[in-house]
Structures are given as structure tokens and as C-alpha cells.
Amino acid sequence: MKFLTTTALALLASAGIAGACEMTLRSSDTHPDGYPTVEGVKAMAAEVEEKTDGRICIEVFPSSQLGEEKDTIEQTQFGVIDMVRASFGSFNDIVPVTQLMSLPYLFRSVDHMHNVMDGPIGEEIAAGFEENDLIALAYYDGGSRSFYNSQKPIQSIEDLEGMKFRVMQNDVFVDMMSALGANATPMPYGEVYSSIQTGVIDGAENNFPSYDSSGHAEVAKYFTLDEHLMVPELVAMSKSTWEKLSPEDQQIIREAARNSATVQRELWAEQERASEEKVVEAGAEIIRDIDKTPFIEAMAPVYEKYVTTPESQDLVKRIQETE
Length: 323
What we know:
By secondary structure, the chain is of the alpha/beta class. The chain has helices at 6-13, 36-51, 69-77, 110-117, 120-130, 171-179, 192-197, 208-213, 216-219, 239-242, 247-281, 293-297, 300-306, 310-321; strands at 23-28, 56-61, 83-87, 134-140, 144-149, 164-167, 183-186, 203-206, 222-230, 233-238, 285-287. It folds into two domains: 6-94 and 132-142 and 232-268, 3-Layer(aba) Sandwich (D-Maltodextrin-Binding Protein, domain 2); 144-230 and 275-321, 3-Layer(aba) Sandwich (D-Maltodextrin-Binding Protein, domain 2), CATH 3.40.190.170. 43% of the residues lie in helices and 19% in strands. The chain has a five-stranded mixed beta sheet, sandwiched between helices. 41% of the residues are buried. Residues 1-19 have low confidence and may be disordered.
């Protein structure tokens, strides 16, 4: 286990609201202040403080002040930190079912993802976290990833043939590109701009805010809205902290967390719209309304390779059948 740095401990000790509350819960986020996930947990904190008459406060530490995601997840499991907001991808080694959420085209749309995660399947997945000393409180929106490139508008699966795309260092994404007829080139995120600019790769894949903030829209102006990947984000609490709360306070926190998911999702949608408008004004071309069916059908060998147990096959089937 990696323990908190001296700086992080000082930050915890100096939290301004600590003295005014009977219990102060420390929540970690890697994103900067003002980011939708940070503001979502702040909304949760405001509701909890109001409904407990100030007895319980939540102090949010953004910008990786308490550590990176995997470190802070571990610290939350041990009760060193009370809460953490992290991507499902960071839980893959702890809660194996989260790996399924990285399957390409698993979710048909953002609404489909929300309906799955907010329903019985989300509750079932939450049980896997509790077995690992974490209480899943709310599922946030991490956005959807789509393809962008410097060469041409991608309007069909045939247009991907032979193209070179940067993907994260992940076997699923490498196999996804192969199944689509393209070539995967794993590389650090910071190298993508120059690699597109110099023709080392044709493009990459990400969401609108990243496409905008990274400057990739300047060198890869064709953005195809295929939404091949939607990975949920999670707000989780340490089980040891949770068990210190009364049933009444647990209910308050759970309701506040779920309400905060609505706030976070709205803020994320606003950020996506703003980034989309910005890149379009700068000359990016957005390719919409493509027929996703051939893309989805091409994933059959990927699913065959990674969805191997009866339990995972059943879960994928139920996710796909959810309206």
C-alpha cells in the first residue's frame, strides 16, 4: 500500500471545514477543480451537509492532491481516505466485472448506459465493490470515445481499412481496431498531436472535451461520432467509513450521491456541447448518423475472446437487452 505524502497529510489536516463538523469525509479526485466529477461530489457534499444539519461534511481534494486514481482507490479500501471518484478502468484489477464495461459498443447510447447503471445491473455490479471494502454510491458519466483523423471523413467501416489509430495500451482496444480493419498504434497520450501532424498515425479516439483541450482538432479535423466506448465513473466510499454511519446517515449519503449523478451528468453534457461547438467553429467536421450495425457486428471475435464465462456472457446479454 502506498501511504499519503506529507503534503497530502498536511492538506487533510488543514481542511477548513473540519472543525465545524462532527464528521468530515475526505474525497479524492484526479481532475481539477471545476471539472464535472469534482462539482458532482461538491453537490453531494452540499446536500449531505444540509440534510445532516452540518454534522457530516465532505471535503473534496481535486487535482490528484491525495494521489493518482489507483493509489487513492487502495487508500479508500484501507480507510485512509473516506471517498474516491475514479473511472471503472482503474478498478479492473480489483472488481473484474468492471472490465466488461470496456467492451466496444457495449452501450448503444449515453441514455442506454445510464439506464443500465442506474438499474438492477448497476446494483449487481455494486455488490462486487462491497466484497472489496468499497461501497458504490453513484455512477457518473465519463463520456463516450469516438474516432478522429486527419485523412478523410469516416462514414462506414470500410473507410477504416488500413488506417493507423493511436489507442491506449489495452489489448481490448488493439483487438477492436484489428476487427475494424484498422491498425492500432499504442502510444503515450502526449505524443499523439505530433504523431498525427507528422503522419506517423492517421488519428486517434477520445471524447469531445479531450479532442478540444488536447489541440488534436487542429491536426485531425474529421471526427466520426461512433461512440465505440463509454466507461462509467464511480463515486465510492470506504466500507470501514460506511459502517461508522447510522442507517439514517447512510440513506442520506446514498440519496445525495445519486442526486449528484444527475448534476454531474448535466455538467458533463454541457462541457461536451461547449467543446463540440468550439472545434466546429475552428473547422472540424463532425460525421454523424453513421450506421453502427456493421461496426457492432465486427466486434463478434472481440467478445468471443474476452467474454468467456457463462456469468459474463449472461451479463453482457442482459446489458444489451436493457432498453
